[in-house]
Each structure stands twice: as structure tokens, then as C-alpha cells.
Amino acid sequence: MAWHPLERWERPQPFGLEALAMDQKGYRRGSFQSSTSDEDMLEIAGASLDFSMADDDPPLDREMGGFTSYNGGGMNGASKMMDFLEEPLPGVGTYEDFNTIDWVREKSRDRDRHREITSKSKESTWALIHSVSDAFSGWLLMLFIGLLAGSLAGLIDISAHWMTDLKEGVCLAGFWFNHEHCCWKSNTTFTDRDKCPEWMSWSQLIIGHGEGAFAYILNYFMYVIWALLFSLLAVLLVKGFAPYACGSGIPEIKTILSGFIIRGYLGKWTLIIKTVTLVLAVSSGLSLGKEGPLVHVACCCGNILCHLFTKYRKNEAKRREVLSAAAAAGVSVAFGAPIGGVLFSLEEVSYYFPLKTLWRSFFAALVAAFTLRSINPFGNSRLVLFYVEFHMPWHLLELVPFILLGIFGGLWGAFFIRSNIAWCRRRKTTKLGKYPVLEVFVVTAITAILAFPNEYTRMSTSELISELFNDCGILDSSKLCEYVNDFNSTKGDDLPDRAAGPGVYTAMWQLALALIMKVFITIFTFGMKVPSGLFIPSMAVGAIAGRLLGVAMEQLAFYHHDWIIFSGWCSQGADCITPGLYAMVGAAACLGGVTRMTVSLVVIMFELTGGLEYIVPLMAAAMTSKWVADAIGREGIYDAHIRLNGYPFLEAKEEFSHKTLAMDVMRPRRNDPPLTVITQDSMTVEDIETIINETTYSGYPVVVSRESQRLVGFVLRRDLIISIENARKKQDGIVSTSIIYFTDHSPPLPPSSPSMLKLRSILDLSPFTVTDQTPMEIVVDIFRKLGLRQCLVTHNGKLLGIITKKDVLKHIAQLANQDPDSILFN
């Protein structure tokens, strides 16, 4: 049998992307062996998938349903098909699961649709109204996405805050109040505001008092029990109802935005389960955040709301523009940073980001932030728990410690990525992946047991970051603010640098222990089968390191203000060093080291703090961390997880600098059988059905004749199957010996011969072609920028072979000394 490059790639053990139909009995055999929580979800749930074609070539031999060619006035403006194909056939124009969309065709179809609406708008008032509503529908959709994403974020914030406090006690005035809200109406003094009589710890509730060893052990026990209950409920809901709801979701969203289709990943069940389990996972005290998953939640909102508008429901490329805007809204509500959200979508997740999408992303982010501000989940009129405002300027010499924090962030980011990927790979390849519930149970138990004795790990990570960012004032009762006060030198609200008291030294070693715990426990947490974001744990690590360095600098300046480095700007009794600023810079450095964000990261951080004057320290730290981390390993955490899972993602930021040619990559190779082709006017229905039955290719080049090999076009397998089946049912005289024509004009047939079947309109007359001498650098650029699935290779006008997206990815992997077989969904 002739070889064909679009052949389905059989693997010894097909990887199960079994998502929506997941085995209710439990994770399938190796289902949960994946690496990061986000990606592996692709290994679960019922539709066993052989990922061979996951890249570019649609597995058109599955069931009837998906691809059309460039029909009617689109790409090739082909002549009309026979009567039986004049009506759109069911399933035509859609894509199979786990396939790449054809960006060129989708954009062409949208242009045709727009031209038709524009031309009709001049004919009647109703058509004009339809044209206006079509133009306005994008903005209306953004409004809905912003409202829904903001509302869900507010719900998640309020619920997580309450359930986190539930681990430590309950409010007698109403069990639905968290600790802070419970004490609002209390008559306690400001210093005792956390000890109001309405709030009872579990030991007070059960044994009547909260002092002593037994009360401590009882509170400890209840803390661990609640943490285990929340995390187990989360993992069981994910496993039973929506396996795609685990992880942060950003690697998959990047892959989906690049044109890949994962049915159910942005569906309603995923949205419901992710929202519920995100609250449970955050409340359990695990070292994870809600910011990454909020991007997934917002994209689910965008995908579901797209079904309200035909323009977005029927066009996959237009839908991806909406998802880019939804990702911006997700970051907007996660950090209260609308501009940062837009830049995050542009810099980190989006593949195709036209100017129109930029404006709509900004509008969606604005509406989402406004909605969350209206809900006011934290009661402080801010969108995030750790909003701070610093008033003291920074000095040029402080850039040295800021850059040191950048180096720390880069080293931590590279260490985290390598360690986490190694652990996730181990999870995929060993029996560990078969026991996701047990893994979550063990990690939660270890986290809770280690966290309770230390007040900085016991509190929620957002509260910890808030405390670390905080600039100490006169009324602050935190240990971090227990300085030796000399009130004679106090001028207004600005407190001078003071000697650290015993509380500060206690806080320092507790924070050092918290830092060690967070550094290591996060490696094992990110990748489990619960929703887990990485922004907050990374920021916590950096904020702890930054606060430690900030306090050290503050004490150095206090005791040695006569040193030459301090003498010019830090006199005795002045407020020179702001430890909270160091925490903020450290948080940015560590987040940048892990994700490799730069511009969007700096904007998010200054939107968090409301201080434009700190942009330079943040930029210095973010760039330093990126340079240091890039020197150790080029990939950020999301790209590393994309590669670990073998998603068909062509990274647009990477340079292709090798000197290979198209003929080095195309199939068939030198010793392979010739390409399987279809001739334009000499094959019968039976011949084509035989090719379809004997091969599993996704499409076939059409040539003038086998001898000439001159290229006519490209036809997709699905279109052939649908067209032949419909012709047999609806057109008289179509039998196995009927000749199939892909030409404009067919020759006259003798009266005795069977009817012919003309399939010109399903033929793509303008497939992308390159010559065999085209440098691969150009070919890779074409695939990236046009979103192609395959490209035909010619020599002097004759068809030589074909290059698919799969071949490009394998070639890049080979040149990087990676296993090429790992590329397609291992």
C-alpha cells in the first residue's frame, strides 16, 4: 500500500484523552499519570484517542461530521455542486475533537459572511438592522462575559474567604460570616478586633475554653480534618464530573487559542465543577492559588456565551478572538488589574490577537473589574485582598537589593520548573498517576500538619501576601510591626526606621520556615487533580524572601546610618526603607521567574499597588529574573507543561535558525512508498471508496494524472465520504462504476454508461504549496502565521510530497535533541 504522510499515527499505547465521558468508576488505567494538573486532564475520560493526528490532519475516518473544503465563493470559488449537495449537510463545516482548525478557511468564511450581510444591508431596513446587530454583537458578548466572569470571581472570593476561616472556628451570630465580618459589629477594642465574643474557635465551641494544650491539639485536629475534607471533595468532584477542571488550565487554553480543539474543556460542566472545586481547593490550605484557574473559568464563560451568537458559534477562528478577550477578563478579576489582564492575554496566552480583539479585551476586562468592584468581596472597596499603597520614594542604591531579588526569582523559577516537570513526568510514567485521590489526600495531610504550628503558613496565602506587602503603621498589631517605638520622633503617619523588637525577630524565623515549606510543597501540589493556580504560591515565595531582605536592609540602615552607602539619603530618625516594597518586588521577581512574563507582570504589580513610582524597581526585578531563568532553561512553566503533554503547539516566540529545506522534512522520504493521490477525472466511486477503506489518511492531493503528477488541489477525506454517501442516496444512477470528476467540464458519456459524479466544489483549488528547495525557516513561519495544517511540496509544478504540522513539530524536536515521538500527546 502506498505511504501517505497524513496517515494516522498508531502508537503502541494510545493515550486516552477521555475527557467528558470519563469512567465514573475511577480514573482509567493510566489516566492520571500526567504531569501537570492542567494538562493531564487530557488523559482522562472516555473517548480513547490515538493522538497521532492530534496535530494537523483531521482524523477524518472517525465518524461523519466535520470538515468542509473551501466551499462556494470562499477560497476557491468553485463551481456549484450537484443538486444533492446544494443544501448544507449535517456535520459539514465543523471539526473533529482533538484537531487543529483551518485558520485560513475560517477567516475566509467569515469574510464571505460579512460581505453578504453588507451587500444585503442596502436592500431593506430589516437587513440594515441585521447588519448593525451583527456588528454590535461582539461588544454585547464582551459585556456578558465581563458580567459573568466578575460575578463568578466575586462568588469564589467570598466563598473561599469564609471556608478558609471555617477551618479555625465558626461565627455564632451567623455561620455564614467569616472571621472578619463576624467581628465587624463587635464592641471589642481595635487591638482585640480578632478576638470578639461572636467568633468561637472549635476548642471553645466543643470544650468551652480556648487555652491550654488540649485546646491547641483539638484546634489542630479540626484544622487538618477540614483541610482533608475540602481537598477530597474537590478531587472527587473533578474525577467524577469534569476531569478537565483540574490544574490551572492555562497550558490548554494556550493550545486551544493556537487553533486546537478539545471538546468539553470549556464546557458548562467544566465551568460549574471548576468554580466549586476551586473554592474547595483554595480553602483546604494547599499551596495553590485561584488566579490561573480564574482565566480558565472566564474562558469557559466566553465559550458558553458564544453559543448565543451565530457569528461566533459557527466560526472557530472568531470564537478564539472571544476567548482571548475572556482570558484578559479572567486576569482582570484575579488581580484587579484590567490593563494587566489585556497585556497578559497578548503576551502570554493569545496566538492570534488583532487590534479589534485588543479593544474588546479591554472592554471585557473593564466590565469584569467593575462587576467585581460592585460586589466588593473583601469589604475594603478593593478588587484584591493584598492591595497596598506605599508613599515613601525609593533610592537609587536600593536597585542593588532589588536586582538581588530578581536573581533569586530567576533561580527559584528555574528550580521550580525543573523539579515540577520531573515530578509530573514521574506521575505520568509510574503507578503514582493511578491514585490521584490518594495523592491529594497525602499532600493535603502533609501541608496541613506542617502549616498549623506556623501562623504564616496557617493563614491563607492571599492574607500572607497582604501582610508581607503591608507598610507598618502605628495601629498595626502584626508581629512584623513589633518595633521598639520612640513616639517623640513620630511625625504624622510616617514612622521612622526603628529597632526591631522581639516580635519582628520571631516573625523572621517563622517566615524563613514558611519560605522553605512553600518552596518545596508547591512543587508537589501544582499538577495534582484539583484546580491549582501558580501565581499566588510563586508570589508568596518571593514576598517572603523580599520581606526578609527588606527588614535586614531596614535594620542595617538603622544601626549603620553613618555608613557611606546610607549617609547621603538615610539620616537617623528618617523613614528610608520600606520592607513591604521589597516584598512586592520579590513577589514580581518569583512570578516572572516561573512564568517568564515581563510587561504584563509589571503592569499587574503596579495596578495592585497603585504606585507608578515603583515601576523601575519592578522592571529591574522582572527583567533580571527572566534573564537568569532563561540562562538556565528557556521555557516558562506553561510552555514546559505544553511540551510535557505533547500538545501540538507551535511557539511563535521561538526562532528557527537551522538550515534545513522542505525536502528534508516532507513525506514520503527517499525509501518510502509513493504518495497516495486521486486523479481528477479517471477514478470511479469504487476506486475512491477502496482508497478510503484501505487508508486512514485525512486528505488526498488531487493530480491531473499519475504520470504527470501535476497538482490540481487537495480534498479532505470527510468531504469525500459525505459527498459519496449523499450522492448514492439522493442522485439516481450513481453506482460503483460511476466516474468521479474534479474538473469544471466533463466529457460527453455514451448512453449506456452510468451517471458521473462531479465533486469539483469540495476540492480546495488553492492548497498552500512550497517548492522542495524552500528553507524550513520560511515553512515554519508559514505554519505559525497562517495556522496551516498541511502544506504540499512541489518541484517544477509536479507534486513531490506533503508537510504536516506534525512533521514540523517532530522536526523541531529532533533538532532540539528531543524525542520526536513525544510531540504528539504522549
Automatic annotation (TrEMBL):
Provide the membrane topology annotation.
Multi-pass membrane protein
Q: Which PROSITE patterns match?
A: CBS
> What GO molecular functions are on record for this protein?
antiporter activity; ATP binding; voltage-gated chloride channel activity
User: Mind telling me which SMART domains this protein's record contains?
Assistant: CBS
Keywords for this protein:
Antiport, ATP-binding, CBS domain, Cell membrane, Chloride, Endosome, Golgi apparatus, Ion transport, Membrane, Nucleotide-binding, Repeat, Transmembrane, Transmembrane helix, Transport, Ubl conjugation
The CBS domain sits at 666-730, 756-822
Cellular compartments annotated: Cell membrane; Endosome membrane; Golgi apparatus membrane; Membrane
Q: How does it assemble?
A: Interacts with NEDD4 and NEDD4L.
Q: Which family does it belong to?
A: Belongs to the chloride channel (TC 2.A.49) family. ClC-5/CLCN5 subfamily.
Listed name of the protein: Chloride channel protein
* Species annotation: Meleagris gallopavo (Wild turkey)
